[in-house]
Write a structure and sequence with these properties.
By secondary structure, this protein is mainly alpha-helical. The two termini are 38 Å apart. It contains six helices and no strands. It is elongated, with a radius of gyration of 20 Å. The protein has one domain (8-169). Helix 2 (37-48) runs parallel beside helix 6 and helix 3 (56-84) packs across helix 5.
Length: 170
């Protein structure tokens, strides 16, 4: 059995991400915001997508659409439940929301994408929608995490390039 080694860059990234999330948790808790999952998911999607800047717009836009679609579903159920009954209202609106999130992707993949579907799904876990707080967490927390992580990544790349240049000079 071969020994598994941890990469130095991975360890450093782990420390940076954990530190940034803890700072964000502390800061947001002083503002009365305890749900920071929208920002954490944004960072996850950014890193999973190869930390490419061109993905950021689609992640933010899709996340916003997903959160607003979940809020719309809750309000729609309140309106339709007296007419259709609770279960029929829920199933009808879930069907319509998912249908439109998928189909409208052909018209605007920036707004209607897998990120929208994911945020929509996660937001529906909560019995009470905190959409404004979640949007704040998404934009303020997401920007904070992205700036911190992209800065760290740029420092790592710069350090590697400088190391390669000094090696090639010898």
């Amino acid at each position: 059995m071969s020994a598994v080694k941890l990469k130095g860059t991975t360890l450093k990234l782990g420390v940076v991400v954990a530190s940034l999330i803890c700072v964000m948790l502390f800061t947001f808790s002083t503002l009365g915001i305890h749900d920071v999952w929208p920002a954490s998911l944004l960072l996850l999607f950014f890193l999973e997508g190869g930390a490419k800047g061109e993905k950021i717009k689609s992640i933010f836009s899709g996340a916003t659409v997903g959160l607003l679609a979940a809020l719309g579903l809750f309000h729609g159920v309140e309106l339709l439940a007296p007419l259709l009954g609770l279960q029929a209202s829920i199933y009808s609106l879930v069907f319509l929301a998912i249908f439109f999130l998928i189909v409208l992707g052909d018209l605007s993949h920036t707004l209607f994408n897998n990120y929208a579907f994911c945020y929509f799904t996660v937001a529906l876990i909560f019995p009470e929608q905190s959409t404004l707080k979640w949007l704040f967490a998404l934009y303020a927390g997401g920007a904070f995490l992205l700036v911190g992580v992209t800065y760290f990544i740029s420092v790592i790349h710069r350090t590697k390039r400088l190391g390669e240049e000094s090696v090639s000079v010898r």
